[in-house]
Specification:
Helix content is 38%, strand content 16%. By secondary structure, the protein is of the alpha/beta class. The longest helix is centred in the first third of the chain and has 18 residues, at 115-132. The chain is globular, with a radius of gyration of 22 Å. The structure holds pyridoxal-5'-phosphate.
Length: 440
């Protein structure tokens, strides 16, 4: 029996798939069976080009032997050890390497199992920090409309994706949302739009309304990824930073998508020249090969939490069974080595102008209502069809059939190609997608 037949002969109902139309999928499954470099193969053996780097996870390309070998060796040596009150060598090395790579001062690293856990950890650090400094009343968390910070309770509460919120009740109390920055004035702008820095003043309004001394942190994605690559307007992040500084509010950047070269710099914080107090990371930290998330914290923030506890006490009552999993650490170390050895962030930067020009080239299609992007993140908005998201879903199905894997957010088509992609690969992704959009 061929491998494709084995896979498709399995019952499809038992696996409740995440963020998926389970019923539709069972009717017409899209199963990816193999990957190598910038390509996937489906269960019929058709080759598809990966225009999203997995799920923003895999910029170094699929099937990297160095990561596979590191994981294998780590499993032979030490498969698992408890992370509470015990350590493994890889996590200390990884934290030191990350501290070198991160903006100066963000050098205390807490590990988690993925992006959602990193967000929860970051928000808990923020609240705990104020508490140990005698400001326990600072508990409000400020997020943003159209933000995505994962699916756990604090993350979706500060997030602003309507569907991710409405089915699950009230969420955390004391959360407020700034307006998003996707404004018509910046339509068809590639890079940062000129308009909208003043949207950051929403944070000041919350200060005026609630009092700065009730606000713990403001969390944003520097570029909001999941709702369609919303690039911050010029000076917007700078203004948020100023307001946070003025009022003692911690600024958290969720760099789960933006981190590790996606913007052409190591982190979006470097690209935009705004350094947060806390940063979350995941996805590309292991090239998507093993789940892992991380939180980078300013040294003095950690120090305040350490100093507040008795000498032998546990200082931060938080952690996961899979925090700093040795196999994830090995995968991350091998991934960071690839990024360094192949200078992949510089490669992402070099690909950026041609990539953004290709995204902008969709503008002439009648169905396209906006194009935008930054670094190797690009988005094409489509005029809605019969219902919101219907056209996007049609494009997802048709592009898969046509040989390209893109990401769809509502009626927006997203590209985030692997950094190892060639100009020819970019041409191919765009050409296949264009043909599909021409059928709409
Ligand atoms: C900005 C951001 N934060 C958090 C998450 C959640 O990460 P995970 O799915 O690994 O929990 C994501 C996932 O896409 C994300 O884009």
């Amino acid at each position: 029996m061929s491998s494709s037949a084995r896979i498709t002969n399995q019952p499809l109902e038992n696996h409740w798939m995440p963020f998926s139309g389970n019923r539709q999928f069972r009717e017409a499954p899209r199963i990816i069976a193999r990957a190598e470099g910038v390509h996937y193969w489906n269960t019929r053996g058709d080759k598809l080009i990966d225009a999203v780097s997995g799920l923003y996870t895999t910029p170094a390309g699929h099937g990297r032997r160095e990561i596979r070998d590191a994981v294998y060796q780590q499993m032979e040596e030490l498969d698992y050890a408890p992370p509470f009150q015990y350590g493994v060598p890889g996590s200390f090395r990884l934290a030191a390497e990350l501290a070198q790579m991160l903006p100066k001062g963000l050098n205390r690293i807490f590990f988690a199992g993925g992006g959602s856990e990193a967000v929860e950890s970051a928000l808990k650090v923020a609240i705990n920090y104020h508490r140990v400094r005698g400001q326990g009343q600072r508990q409000r968390l400020i997020g943003r409309e159209r933000g995505y910070h994962g699916v756990n309770f604090a993350g979706w509460s500060v997030g602003g994706m309507v569907k991710n919120r409405q089915a699950f009740g009230l969420g955390l109390p004391g959360v407020a949302h700034m307006r998003h920055t996707h404004i018509p004035e910046n339509k068809f702008v590639m890079g940062q739009g000129e308009h909208g820095a003043d949207l950051a003043d929403d944070l000041q309004r919350f200060v005026d309304l609630h009092g700065a001394d009730t606000i713990a942190a403001c969390i944003v994605e520097p570029i909001a990824g999941s709702t369609g690559i919303l690039v911050p307007p010029q000076n917007y992040l700078q203004r948020l930073r100023q307001i946070c500084d003025k009022h003692g509010i911690l600024l958290i950047f969720d760099e789960v998508i933006c981190g590790f070269g996606r913007t052409g710099a190591a982190f979006a914080a470097d690209a935009f020249g705004v350094i947060p107090d806390i940063m979350t990371m995941a996805k590309a930290i292991t090239n998507g090969n093993i789940p892992m998330g991380a939180v980078a914290v300013r040294e003095d923030i950690q120090q305040a939490i350490l100093d507040a506890a008795g000498p032998d006490a546990i200082e931060f009552f938080h952690g996961y069974t899979y925090s700093a999993h040795p196999v994830a650490c090995a995968a991350a170390l091998a991934t960071l080595k690839i990024y360094r050895d192949e200078d992949l962030f510089a490669r992402a930067k070099a690909l950026t102008p041609g990539f953004l020009a290709r995204i902008a080239s969709f503008r002439d299609l009648p169905v396209v209502t906006d194009t935008r992007g930054y670094g190797l993140l690009g988005a094409i908005d489509l005029a809605p069809g019969t219902a919101p998201g219907a056209r996007g879903f049609e494009v997802l199905k048709k592009t898969f059939e046509a040989g390209v894997v893109v990401r769809i957010a509502g009626d927006t088509v997203i590209f985030s190609p692997p950094f190892i992609a060639s100009e020819d690969h970019l041409d191919e992704m765009v050409a296949i997608t264009r043909k599909v959009l021409e059928t709409l």
